[in-house]
């Protein structure tokens, strides 16, 4: 899927520095609406050309030698096939320099679509197991990239760390320990990712408790490829502050009412759900029913490179299901695991943006 270049303006770049994105309400052109992205895996956001470059730099051979061949490889049959390709390709991301680079590259891409705040996901256990780095090197590489992007690109980047559901509790506890250790450097959440069916959240409760006690939030995937029981488990056992996807909550009307009443934000990613087969068609996507029920839904890309999408495309698809740009932004502010000063700044950006003009121009 390709998207026309958005209208984002840049001021003069200082020598040797990347251009700083102006606030999206820049005058003189209809500005791109500001966006908050809360659900994007950095390892799945590396575009094919960059992934090939990283593999070559690390002396690895991917099962594809051109961006076109990689795109072929990305035609998943189902969720299991997606996980298989994810593990095969993301293994090319191995060094501290790689981690720094992929945070910065994606932040730059997201900013070009109007993002002002990105809460990006990384999976440190996989990077440690499949690479050449220690836990500290993995965390500090990603944190360095987030700090650099925040300073140079004008988009605030925070990190959340996923535990693979197939990992054991010891791995989860180690991930939680390092999340707390790196909280002062921008790690704000602990998550749970990977195959949901057959890997319930309950066994991971002690890791999420450790994170919570250290001031790190809970942002598990739930209700993507498993149903309401998985969502309830995430809420009750893991104390979820937010849900990644959460779409299958619609199978239980009482659960949807509870999400709405509690204001639990769901990070919805339409293309991802279609590509992994979690949803069979856009028309049947549960987002419209969630919004009708009053569940706050933010809009994200999940794994934009693997799914051939981007932040503007996801917002455009979500709009066809009733998600307004302003509503998605407000849900993003509500769900962000940021400090109060950052939240106040994001609220101000939302208040000052002329949503009506941007909406009219998009029609
Ligand atoms: Zn995800």
Layout of secondary structure:
Blueprint: E1 35-41, H1 48-57, H2 67-73, H3 79-90, H4 96-112, E2 115-122, H5 124-130, H6 135-153, E3 156-164, H7 169-181, E4 187-193, H8 205-213, E5 217-218, E6 221-222, H9 228-236, E7 242-245, H10 253-262, E8 265-268, H11 270-275, H12 287-292, E9 297-299, H13 304-307, H14 311-320, H15 325-335, H16 340-352, H17 355-362
Parallel strand pairs: 1-2, 2-3, 3-4, 4-5, 6-7, 7-8, 8-9
The chain binds zinc ion.
Give a brief rundown of this model.
Helix content is 47%, strand content 13%.
In words, what does this structure look like?
The protein has a domain at about 40-240 and about 325-355: TIM Barrel (Alpha-Beta Barrel). It is about 45% helix and about 15% strand. The protein has 17 helices and nine strands. It has helices at about 50-55, 65-75, 80-90, 95-110, 125-130, 135-155, 170-180, 205-215, 230-235, 255-260, 270-275, 285-290, 305, 310-320, 325-335, 340-350, 355-360, and strands at about 35-40, 115-120, 155-165, 185-195, 215-220, 220, 240-245, 265-270, 295-300. The strands form two sheets. Strands 1-2-3-4-5 form a five-stranded parallel sheet. A four-stranded parallel sheet has the order 6-7-8-9. Residues about 1-30 have low confidence and may be disordered.
């Amino acid at each position: 899927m390709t998207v026309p270049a958005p209208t984002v303006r840049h001021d003069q770049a200082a020598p040797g520095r990347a251009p700083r994105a102006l606030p999206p309400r820049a005058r003189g052109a209809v500005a791109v609406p500001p966006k908050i992205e809360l659900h994007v895996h950095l390892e799945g956001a590396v575009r094919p050309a960059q992934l090939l470059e990283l593999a070559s730099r690390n002396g690895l051979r991917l099962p594809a030698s051109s961006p076109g061949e990689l795109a072929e490889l990305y035609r998943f049959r189902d969720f299991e096939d997606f996980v298989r390709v994810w593990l095969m390709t993301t293994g090319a991301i191995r060094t501290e320099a790689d981690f720094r680079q992929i945070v910065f590259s994606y932040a730059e891409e997201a900013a070009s679509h109007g993002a002002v705040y990105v809460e990006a996901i990384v999976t440190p256990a996989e990077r440690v197991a499949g690479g050449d780095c220690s836990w500290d090197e993995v965390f500090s590489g990603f944190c360095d990239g987030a700090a650099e992007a925040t300073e140079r690109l004008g988009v605030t980047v925070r990190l959340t760390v996923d535990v693979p559901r197939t990992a054991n509790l010891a791995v989860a506890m180690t991930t939680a320990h390092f999340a707390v250790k790196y909280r002062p450097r921008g790690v704000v959440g602990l998550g749970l990712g990977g195959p949901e069916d057959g890997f319930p959240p309950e066994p991971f409760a002690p890791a999420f408790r450790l994170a919570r006690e250290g001031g790190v939030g809970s942002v598990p995937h739930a209700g993507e490829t498993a149903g309401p029981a998985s969502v309830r488990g995430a809420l009750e056992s893991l104390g979820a502050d937010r849900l990644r996807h959460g779409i299958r909550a619609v199978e239980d009307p009482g659960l949807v009412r509870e999400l709405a009443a509690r204001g639990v934000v769901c990070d919805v990613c339409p293309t991802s759900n279609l590509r992994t087969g979690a949803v069979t068609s856009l028309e049947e996507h549960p987002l419209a029913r969630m919004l009708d029920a009053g569940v706050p839904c933010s809009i994200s890309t999940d794994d934009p490179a693997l799914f051939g999408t981007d932040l503007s495309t996801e917002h455009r698809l979500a709009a066809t299901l009733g998600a307004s740009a302003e509503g998605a932004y407000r849900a993003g502010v509500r769900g962000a695991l940021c400090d109060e000063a950052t939240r106040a700044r994001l609220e101000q950006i939302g208040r000052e943006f002329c949503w009506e003009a941007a909406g009219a121009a998009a029609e």
